[in-house]
Amino acid sequence: MKRILAIVAALALAISTNAQKSMREEIAANPDLAGGIYTAYTVTEHSVAKAPCGYKPFYISHYGRHGSRYQTAQEKYITPLVVLDQANKDGKLTDLGVDLLRRVRIICEDAEMRAGDLSDRGEQEQRNIAERMIKAYPQVFSNKKAKRVHCLASPFVRSVMSMAAFTEELKEHCPHLEISHKASFQDIHITRPEKNMDTFFKKARQIAKQYQMEHTNDKAFISRIFNDYNYAAKLICKEFNSSSTYGFIGNMHDLAMIIQNFYHLPYIHDVFSEEERYQMWHFFNIRRYLTYGPSLDFGDVRNEDGKLLLRDIIERADKVLSGDNNKEAATLRFGHDSAIIPLLAIMHAEGCDGRISFAEIERLPEVWCDSRITPMSANAQFVFYRNKKGDVLVRLLLNEKDIRIPIKSDCYPFYKWEDFRKYCVAQCEPTAR
Fold this sequence. Notes:
Elements: H1 2-29, E1 56-65, H2 75-89, H3 95-111, H4 120-136, H5 138-142, E2 148-153, H6 157-173, E3 178-183, H7 188-191, H8 201-215, H9 219-225, H10 229-239, H11 246-258, H12 274-292, H13 299-322, E4 328-335, H14 337-346, H15 370-373, E5 379-386, E6 392-398, E7 401-402, E8 414-416, H16 417-427
Parallel strand pairs: 1-4, 2-3, 2-4
Antiparallel strand pairs: 1-5, 5-6, 6-7, 6-8
Helix pairs in contact: 1-12, 2-3, 2-10, 4-6, 8-12, 13-14, 13-16
């Protein structure tokens, strides 16, 4: 018996090691994947599954995160620049540090007064998604009887601009569409459902921060940029108002990752080693998982917010299918990663619902990955199909790729609407506590 348990433990360790190694390899091959939610949206494969005989698409319900953007806090640009600039004046930068200062200054000048703004790349991401949607489902948008497109956006500039870019592309291809736009706090429970976050967010964030502080090994990083480690440590602690230097490498990693959201800014990946880059992603992934994800510690509370969005998706589909709103071709919602994460978690979408406790947090890379789930412009698309008998199928896509949920289907990636609806309604029930 002991021998069997030893073999099982060894296999489990091997599986865990391989999973983490896989993510390490991906980041080593493409440093941008260490960006987490800063990862720019890319489509490497896009195919349209052939619907069962006689079924045609007629309605799309969509939730999309805003496109690539600037950092949402101006101090993420200002503070590292202040540190590097002061060190340069004091002659404490290495040659790499001097060149890094040059690049950071370019990045900061470009970002002045633009915290949270949509970038040019972000606008193009939204246009490209809209164009592919039209080409993939022309029947939805060519129906002259059902030509209304109802759009909601969270009342933040990047979301509104994303909605504008997406719908402008729709209108260019289909001028007959009647598109309504709304961006109001009245709909914030749908576009940015975060009602329950106040009950745990600060605690979750503090746990992630403490973990990062205790596990950051940044001496080699700092010594690569500054020629006097003790000087650098003192300056960093002062400017970051901290007893630890961990904030500097974290801030620099944020800058390095956000750059992929633009076409014109200099990269700064070269200041990180592969291990540092992976560790920074790991810390960031933990922070997102605890504050927004389905963790055993906080996930039940967070998932209650996801139910608000899922309920809206089901209710609006019901109206279209019942005939009360049968002139609506598409419902498009534009908001944030904080809505997509719990939506996919409560639906138990494959790869999006991993539940572990903080005690197991080292296993997180094999359970949940923010870069894959919610890059910039992340989107969930519910595509509805119907045959002449009136039977309805629905297909779920994450970032334009089919994703499985635990519903039996003899024609995956299509699910019978009655099965899909019943399942989603059950997921919207309040969690017993």
